[in-house]
Amino acid sequence: RCLARAEQSSATLVVDQLRIHREADGHEQAMFTPVQLRADRPLTLEDFIAGNRTFTHGYTLGYLKPIIAAPLLAAYGIAYHPEIRIGEDYILMLELLVSGAVCVVEPTAGYRYTVRRGSISHRLRQEDVARIRASDAAFFGKYPVSDRAQRLQLQRLRNLETTYAFTQLVEALKQRKPRTVWNILRTRPTALCLLWLPLWARLKRLP
User: Fold this and answer.
1) Torsion of CA 128, 133, 135, 141, to 10 degrees
2) What's the pTM?
């Protein structure tokens, strides 16, 4: 289906919908809504950055699994960066889109994403945040992008810092460290607004 859509649209890049499979209870649902993943037009660089700004409300477009035309990779020398261990998919997609790849969306789901019991893949550590910031800075220092793309990227980095502060806040509350909690709230008060997320996640798991 992805190949057919790419050939029909003369596209060099195609992504499709994913289905989330929860290992704990077998529940399945689409990862993205039709608004988040629009199939009526190509996915642009700005669209992709905008879809990767939020690290706390569901899934980002960084979870997309693209099918890529091999000549595009060869023509621009694009490949995974082995030194990037967190966010390498994001940088790869950025390089493809900034190099002129036309990305179309296949709305059906051809990929099942399993959420394992006790998974910690969504938890950000300080070193993870540092690596993401460094790889993002290297990309935007190398490639010229639109002013809108720059603004969206700045919002992404701000949200990343808030997300990290939130994970630290939760850990400090669990360990009953009031001084650490106060320091986090003093420097990043927006992290407090995210405390409803664990409760919401539990409510969604109820029958």
Assistant:
1) -170
2) 0.81
- CB count within 10 Å of CB 146 equals 11
The string over 102-124, giving b where at least 16 C-beta atoms fall within 10 Å of a residue's C-beta and e elsewhere, is bbbbbeebeeeeeeeeeeeeeeb
Q: What are phi and psi of 146, to 5 degrees?
A: -70, 160
**Cα(138)–Cα(99) distance, rounded to whole angstroms?**
16
d(CA 64, CA 47): 13
Tokens of 169: 């806040």
**The one-letter amino acid at 15:** V
Amino acid at site 56:
T
pLDDT in tens, the chain (207 residues): 999 999 999 999 999 999 999 888 888 999 999 988 999 999 999 999 999 986 655 688 989 999 999 999 999 999 988 888 778 889 999 999 999 999 999 999 999 999 887 665 556 677 777 788 888 999 999 999 999 999 999 999 888 888 788 878 888 888 888 888 888 888 888 777 766 665 555 555 565
